[in-house]
């Protein structure tokens, strides 16, 4: 018996559904269904992609303002830099809004060491000083430029990057992220100061150096 073929219109409909299914699975998160969700960080020790909302009746105007980035960071450390975070942990009103900012202070010669932000793209503007900004692509291509006050940069999500003060005085950068908590994997600390430590033989093989070099770096970063 001959099986009736589907009409042309039905075939087109099936094809459209098949084409759209992959797109739907990779669609962006839906827009917020409320004006705000000020994080109630005391409500629970468990959080999944955000924090519970503080009851609207307990939200005040002060919840929507944060002065943390107005304070100069302490750069008296081995890197000569300090990062002050303006993310959901310090500014709870950012909860569910998908944005955050940092203040980066750099002493003369100071370095914000190579690091990545696994959950966000970073953009920034130099407020003061002269700063070398660089990042490396997944193709192992290095891009960099020396920036002065008023100039901007962008670092694509997840790429290793750094900022170094190459001027004669202090430098200041303000950075912004498309995540309420972008995270930071600081390579020197991650590789040489993790708890527990990465085995020395892994690091000596990876960097092609002797064990005493690895131990020297670990001692400097753990002090």
TrEMBL record:
Residues binding Mn(2+) = 115, 117, 122, 161
InterPro entries in alphabetical order: 11S_seedstore_pln, Cupin_1, Germin
Q: What is its main location?
A: secreted
Q: Which GO terms describe its molecular function?
A: manganese ion binding; nutrient reservoir activity
According to the record, the signal peptide region is: 1-27
Q: What does the entry list under GO cellular component?
A: apoplast
Q: Which locations, inside or outside the cell, does it occupy?
A: Secreted, Extracellular space, Apoplast
What residues bind oxalate, as annotated?
102, 112, 117, 122
Function comment = May play a role in plant defense. Probably has no oxalate oxidase activity even if the active site is conserved.
Name of the protein in question: Cupin type-1 domain-containing protein
Per the UniProt record, the source organism is Carya illinoinensis
> Taxonomically, what lineage is the organism?
Eukaryota, Viridiplantae, Streptophyta, Embryophyta, Tracheophyta
